[in-house]
Amino acid sequence: MEHHNPKITSAEISMLWSTYVGDSMAICILSHFLQTTEDQDINPIIEFALESAHDHLHLISELFTKEGIPLPNGFGKQDVNLQAKKLFSDVTYMRYLHHMGRTGLNTYSLAKSISSREDVRYLFKRFYDQTETLYDRNTKMMQEKGVFIRSPYISYPDKVEYITDKSFLGGLLGHRRPLLAMEIAHCGVNIEVSNVAKTMLLGFSQVAQSKKISDYFKEGYDLGKKMVEDFMIKLKEDDNSYPSTWDSTITASTEAPFSDKLMLFHTNTQSAIGIGDFGLAIAASLRKDLALLYEKYLLKVGAYAEDGAKIMIDHGWFEKPPQSIDREAIRNQNK
Question: Most CB contacts within 10 A, which of 42, 146, 176, 317?
Answer without folding.
Answer: 42
